[in-house]
Write a structure and sequence with these properties.
TIM Barrel; alpha/beta; globular
Length: 331
């Protein structure tokens, strides 16, 4: 080794020694070496589930044939383009036992193509107080559709608290779970908090085992003394009271809200169609109070003066898209 090489080797050893002394100085005095800091690693967090946001009754009919696929595809694609990811749709109970039960899959197939989840409601069904529940149509329907990827839940009962007490509702829930154990059960509940402990409707105490998706609503867009009136408090109180009830007694259940998009002058509150700004307010109030899902009720329905799909409701239809866009744009 020549003199230059020896000099470089000694210089390298000196530098290394200085570095070690800087990390663990005075080691001879018994101090512990301080380890070099390491870059913290973060565990990737799963993306939050998107808010179920959608419409009730997007299609007028409850049964379809292969000839309806193209029109249905256009319709559901248009809804998806509005920001809709969830719908409640009726399916004909009359197909049970006809050999045409496979037609139930047509709507679900096209919903899956449009990336829309479906809560299915069989129609017509009769659920009379005091009578045994007839679950044969539900069993037939779920035997065909129960594993479909677009099927989100089964909608069992419409405003059941006026007709059935808690025991009967738990009986219905248990019976559906025996047919489809993993499929959520949804009900149009109205306001559980209003019925809970009611003297007029005894035995309506809300508990777990009644609904996995509990859907509540109120009607804030009204007319009073000939002037438009918006009942903001009704939205806040409805969601707040029912949110508290679920959190206390059925924390595994979800609370969904129906936003009013219909007018009915022949009603005690003279219901009117909300303006686009009022629709945004309904949505924001419900979200702020902690709903798990939000649906506009309804898109189509023959019993009202006007609904969201009415041609003159173009501004309200645009609001459906703008509201969810604004929500998704928030940090």
């Amino acid at each position: 080794m020549n003199g230059r090489s020896l000099f470089l080797l000694l210089l390298l050893l000196l530098i290394v020694g200085c570095q070690e002394t800087a990390v663990g100085k005075d080691l001879d005095a018994g101090e512990t070496a301080v380890p070099l800091p390491t870059r913290p690693t973060s565990t990737p967090q799963p993306a939050p589930e998107p808010l179920p946001y959608g419409l009730v009754y997007p299609a007028a009919q409850s049964s379809w044939t292969e000839a309806d696929r193209a029109a249905l595809r256009r319709q559901l694609t248009a809804l998806h383009d509005m920001g809709i990811n969830t719908v409640i749709q009726t399916f004909s109970s009359g197909l049970a036992g006809t050999g045409q039960e496979g037609d139930w899959l047509i709507f679900l197939d096209e919903a899956e193509r449009a990336e829309i989840k479906v809560i299915a409601r069989l129609w017509p069904l009769t659920e009379e107080a005091g009578e045994p529940f007839d679950l044969e149509p539900a069993a037939a329907f779920l035997a065909v559709t129960g594993d479909h990827p677009a099927l989100l839940a089964y909608l069992g009962l419409h405003e059941p608290l006026e007709r059935f007490n808690s025991d009967r509702m738990r009986q219905f829930y248990t019976s559906i779970k025996e047919i489809a154990p993993d499929l959520p059960v949804a009900h149009y509940m109205g306001s559980m908090a209003l019925f809970d402990g009611s003297l007029r409707f005894p035995g309506r105490r809300f508990t777990e085992g009644i609904c996995d998706i509990c859907i509540v609503w109120c009607t804030p867009a009204q007319t009073r003394d000939g002037e438009p009136y918006f009942d903001e408090t009704a939205v806040i109180q409805t969601v707040r009271d029912n949110r508290r009830l679920i959190d206390e007694r059925a924390p595994d259940s979800q609370l969904w809200f129906l936003g009013q998009t219909y007018a009915l002058a022949d009603h005690r509150d003279q219901l009117r169609m909300p303006t686009p700004d009022e629709m945004a307010q309904i949505f924001d109030l419900a979200i702020d109070e902690g709903v798990d899902g939000f649906l506009w009720y309804p898109w189509l329905h023959g019993s009202y003066d006007a609904v969201l799909s009415s041609p003159e409701m173009e501004a309200q239809q645009q609001a459906v898209s703008q509201i969810i866009q604004s929500y998704l744009a928030k940090p």
